[in-house]
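Step 1: inspect the first sequence and its tokens.
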Amino acid sequence: MLLYAYGAVKKSIEVPLPFPLNSNNEIVTEIKKALGKGKANGRRVRLAVIDHITSTPCVVIHVKELVKICREEGVDQVFVDAAHSIGCMGILGIFSVRTSHKTARSDLSCPCQYLNREN
């Protein structure tokens, strides 16, 4: 096995989600467990990265609720990967990045970024 991850990746926590999902509560429960793990021993969670719509399998994540939970738990920043949601969902009031090369048939170099001034 080749392990070559750099420090920031080694410190990350991946949240496994059950599939198929029976309710949004399953996602909320797993996120809360992961945040608790990340905050263990007096540590803090500096960044949460959340997919808005996962790629495989396709699941719409209720990111507004998760962002609220992250804020309540003291997460420094929340980044939403909204690549698959362009044209499907409105812009969230948070930091998100989208790309339109799949949905709008644009060039690969045509991403867009949204940053709420409150962040």
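Step 2: inspect the second sequence and its tokens, then contrast the two.
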Amino acid sequence: MTIILPKLTLQDNKDIQPAAEHGHHNIVQLLLTHARVDPSTNDNEAIREAASNGHIEVMRLFLADPRVDPSANDQIALKMASEKGHAMTVKLLLSDPRVEISAGAQYAIDIRPNCFTQLDSLQDATEEGGLLGLVHEMLPL
């Protein structure tokens, strides 16, 4: 099977942001293969959108791409995921060595306990090693 990439335009980097925001991981994956697409434009806006909306598969793609900085803008992706109650996204971000809970991201714990109150997030967290384990990961040593 041959996949034909569309001719990309000056909008290349703007196209990845809405794909990330809406969780279209297949489109994000395809865009990441093109050299003209830079997922880190606008201070890593695409990963912020994916984190804010809890799109785990898109987050995995971005975290695997060395051009993306998940800690950009004072850990905003972590803060947004926490604020919106996306516990699995928070856990995924914390598993990346570039994200440091001590580097201004204490906010992710302090501002909202949403990560631990939304039913879906609680279920996801307990299935992946327990809610208590997630809390321990978020607490500074």
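Step 3: confirm your contrast with the notes below.
The longest helix spans residues 41-52. Confidence is low (pLDDT under 50) at residues 116-131.
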